[in-house]
Amino acid sequence: MTLKETIKKFIPKFLLKVYHFKLALLGAMIFGFPGKNKNVKIIGITGTSGKSTTGDFICKILEEAGNKVASISSIRFKVGDKEWENKYKMTMPGRFVIQKFLKQALDAKCKFVVLEVTSEGIRQFRHKFINFDTAVFTNLSKEHIESHGSFEKYRNEKLKLFKVCKNIHIINGDDENAKYFIDIPANKKLIFSIKDKKDYDFELNVLGDFNIMNALAAINTAKVYGVDFEVCKKVLENAKGIAGRMEVVNKNPLVVVDYAHTPVQLEAVYKSLKNKKLICVLGSCGGGRDKWKRPVLGEIAKKYCSKIFVTNEDPYDEDPMDIINEVYKTAGQNAEKILDRKEAIKRAVKSAGQDDTVIITGKGSEPWMCVKNGKKIPWDDRQIARDVLAEKNLTRGL
Question: Where is each Mur ligase C-terminal domain found (predicted)?
Answer without folding.
Answer: 244-364
